[in-house]
Amino acid sequence: MDWQFSRSKHNSFEGFNNAAMNHFSADRSGSLIREVVQNSLDARDASISSPVEMVLSLHRVQASSNEEITSLEPVFDQILSVSESGASKEFFKNGKDQIGKHEIAFLGIHDFGTTGLTGPLDGPAGPWFTLVRSTGVSEKQQPGALGSFGHGSKAPFSISRLRTIFYYSIIQGDHDIEKRFLGKTILQSTREKSGEINAATGYFGMSETQSAILDGDIPEWVIESRGSGALGTTVLVASPRIEESFFELARASLLANFYLAIDSGSLKVKVGDLAVIEKASLTQQLESALEWLDLPGNEHAEKLREKFRSIQSIRNPTTSGILKSGAFGDVAYFLRHSDEVTWKRVGICRANGMLITYKPPLLKQFPSSTTFDLILWVRDPQASENLVKMENPQHNELSFDQIENETDASQVKMAYKTFTSEVKSLLAEIAPAVSLEEVKLEEIDELFGNLLEGSLDSKISDVPRIREISSNYSDKIKVPNGKNAGPSSGVGGGGGRRKKTGGSIPTTEGNSVSTAGWTNLSPLHNFSFLIESSDAIGPKGLSLKVRFTPNESGKHNLALMSAGEGPERRLLEQAGPSGPLALGETIEVVGGEEAVLRVRLSSATKKIDFGIEALLVPEPKTGEK
Fold it and tell me: Strand 213-214 relative to strand 52-62: parallel, antiparallel, unpaired?
């Protein structure tokens, strides 16, 4: 038994830098917790009702009885002999120092109540082969495997000073219990005297074959580290690069990312000698974690406190229930709104109870709602599979770009968009609506005077190009480029604030607003509108459904104007709670994401037989004049 490195394919050289590990460099400990816990939850043994149990522990093994590590020294020496200055040389120099210590430290991550790493030892599929022996293979390609075994499987390596991991798994074989063990290291290529190049990845297993070590041949220190012969998996991280407060961080990270899994009784974790986190101890553990986050200079506080605020929403929601989603099945929701909640946010958790993201696609802007915190728990396993396909390697973002198969991408997009529409409808029912402040026409003078400063020399390049749809027919507005286009472009007219009369863009009642120097505008694209059905058109005015894509994020007012030139071009008043508004209510938009909202025009607009242009006017900053 020793370390073996295969010959490199096509005799190519693999350098020290590893893009998959770099994904986790900003938060190695947090990424490790998210990766290993979600893998264990996904491997839960469905035949038993008890929770998945995990143990995080530190082990120290005498170097004299640890040939699995000491036999790496010749490889480190060989690489050091050809390494130039830089990160690579520093890593292997420090690594050799670790190997030479009297004791070797290991971070043990043990799970129980799972199926273990099953499947054939030599592949080509199955959890064991996918995790231990494959590169770039994920659950997206291997249904039934644990979590995501693509880049995500590199999280434990990123925290090892030796980039070395040992896997020990106990499974139910065809007839008896089977134990399997293998070491894996990811270093950089080495060159033999013959000129042949070895791969960067090596395995500690049976000599020549690099196959797993089984049952009675498994090292005693590995068996002792697990402490139990129950089914499950142990991951041993060699010489872990962890801070002194690692177990405190682990506790806080577990609570922040897996609160629902713990609260539902699906997960129980023993964190070193610090704590046992389970449903019965949640309140106590939350209090202790918050005390740690409150310590002066805690660098993890800001990132984790954001997630702890959502735990409060789950524990003490203003309203909660089940959303019956046609696309995602039963989705549990927890919504909180109070004076303490000063944000608008949706968090999504998948079926195993892991929080994925607070920035889900198409659920980032809510112009018609006041502040709220909403947590969605997609509990249906099949629906949750759609979320897994969209997850990035760190499991903290969702993106359609993660789905490589075009057929899958199309199906997931359709289901997800239906789901987000259902969520927005839910919010319309349960989240407090924005209370529109009364804005009189006279106040628009002040607003335009503050925002629209400039001169007649404003360039047409400052004006957004607009696509318009009039009375359900699509067309393009042709705008001249490079010249002052006058009133038709929205940049003409006299300078300064308007008086009671005069100006280039009259309102429907004959008054006018000067729009000189619209250089502070935020561009929008793909603007379209649709006149809603007659039952949506009441005595208060026409109801429009408008869509557009802004370039920039922030708070803005939406100005609607009739398309045309000279006196034919006018601002369309929008209906306010106590009178007409030249500009609509303030909305918050996200650059690059489509905004969809309903606009009701004032009764001054009886019909629409003209095209409409739209402009986003940024909300004035405090103290801006």
Answer: unpaired
Asked whether the beta carbons of 31 and 155 are under 8 A apart, the reply is yes
Which residues have a Cβ under 8 Å from the Cβ of 374 and sit 6 or more positions away? Answer: 313, 333, 334, 335, 345, 346, 347, 423, 427, 431
| 494 contacts 514 by C-beta, under 8 angstroms | yes
- DSSP 3-state of 11: helix
- Is the Cβ–Cβ distance between 424 and 575 less than 8 Å? no
Which of 423, 412, 415 is CA-nearest to residue 324? Answer: 423
Give 326's contacts (C-beta < 8 A, 6+ positions apart): 418, 422
The predicted-structure confidence for 312-334, as pLDDT tens digits, reads as follows 999 999 999 999 999 999 999 99
Q: Give buried/exposed letters for 460-474 (b at 16+ CB in 10 A, else e).
A: bebbbebbbbbeeee
Cα distance between residue 497 and residue 487, in whole Å: 16
pTM, full prediction: 0.69
Dihedral (CA of 243, 247, 251, 253) sign: positive
- Per-residue pLDDT tens over the stretch 507-548: 444 334 344 444 456 667 777 777 764 444 445 577 888 888
Q: Is the backbone of residue 586 left (phi > 0), alpha (psi -120 to 50) or beta? A: beta
Structure tokens at 277: 């986190």
Cα Rg, the chain, nearest whole Å? 31
Sequence-distant (≥ 6) Cβ neighbours of residue 606 within 8 angstroms: none
The DSSP element (H or E) to which 28 belongs, if any, is helix 28-42
Take residue 428 and report the two structure tokens written for it.
């319309």
Give dist(CA 459, CA 564) in Å, integer. 19
Instruction: For residue 159, give both structure tokens.
Output: 């925290």
- For residue 152, the 8-state DSSP code is G
Give 589's strand partners: 554
96: helix, strand or coil: helix
Residue 183 forms beta bridges with which residues? Answer: 166, 204
106 sits in which H/E element: strand 103-112
User: How confident is the model over 240-286, as pLDDT tens digits?
Assistant: 999 999 999 999 999 999 999 999 999 999 999 999 999 999 999 99
Which token pair is 586? 């303030």
Measured in Å, how far apart are the chain's first and last C-alpha atoms?
A: 77
> Which has the closest alpha carbon to 384: 359, 405, 362, 415?
415
Residue whose C-alpha is closest to residue 563's, from 466, 472, 433: 466
| 95-to-90, 339, 533, 551 alpha-carbon distances in Å | 8, 52, 71, 48
Left (φ > 0), alpha (ψ -120 to 50) or beta: where does 193 sit? alpha
Tokens of 587: 């909305």
**Lowest mean pLDDT, pick from 72-81, 115-124, 283-292:** 115-124
Query: Can you tell me the distance from the alpha carbon of 596 to that of 574, in angstroms, rounded to the nearest whole number?
Result: 16
Q: What is the full DSSP assignment across 406-433?
A: HHHHHHHHHHHHHHHHHHHHHHHHHSPB
User: How far is C-alpha 45 from the chain's CA centre?
Assistant: 28
Q: Give the span between the Cα atoms of 23 and 187, in whole angstroms.
A: 17
Q: Which residues does 69 contact at the CB level (< 8 Å), separation at least 6?
A: 61, 63, 99, 104, 162, 164, 238, 239
- Residues 384 and 501: their CA atoms lie apart, in Å, by 59
